[in-house]
Amino acid sequence: MSHVLPLPVPVDLPVAKISERFPVRRVYGVHRNYEAQHGEAEFRGGRPPGFYCKPADLLRPVDAGEVGDAPCPLPGQSLYFEVGLILAIGKGGRRIRAADAAKHIYGFAVGLDMSRSDAPKDAKPPLQRSSFGSTFDMPTYIGPIVQAADVPGHAQAQLWLQVNGTEQQRSTTARLLWSVSQIVEYLSAICELHPGDLIYTGTPEGIGMAGAGDLVIAVVDGVGAVALQVARRAKP
After folding, report:
1. Which one, out of 137, 158, 173, 223, has a CA that is 20 to 30 A from the CA of 9?
2. Residue 139 pLDDT > 90
3. Strands of the 166-172 sheet, one edge to the other
4. What residues does 93 pair with on adjacent strands?
């Protein structure tokens, strides 16, 4: 069969310890999912989580031990970087119970999401970054997927982000407002999950900001690290 345009290149990601790769279908994310972020502690159990979706072709894999390249921000613009735990769905389903969620999770990865500082001024938070600055043409950098059996401590993992060696974010997945299992339960009640779906579980307070030439490192204990070098501006 011929096509009027070239077919898009499929998106797949490396998997730690094996040569096979993980094919990506959709990328979801959870808004404001940490206790200390924006005073969210009082919302634990008080409202359902909010979700957004991001195009899969914005994923940028960064292999272990490598330093990825991030685009240089425009003059007067900065880039926000957010560390988060990403879960990878290996078995699909609809209305999955939290108690059964582990059966549907293939593995986990470190996410280093990027968003622009020039979102429209009339956009209201928390959608300002994640709906405009992040979703439209801003990459999500991701480390290799680690199979779930190799991440037994994902529910209490430390995660942090540094810019040029200065810590900007630090928390633990134990402070998620909605746990990994609850995220799967809520999201699968809204839309059917499929093998290859990724879910960004959120980012803690202290979202990091970086500019031209900065080195950004994001870590989730037991899962890995993602390092990025923001490009420098060309001299006039």
Report:
1. 223
2. no
3. 67-70, 224-230, 215-220, 158-163, 166-172
4. 193
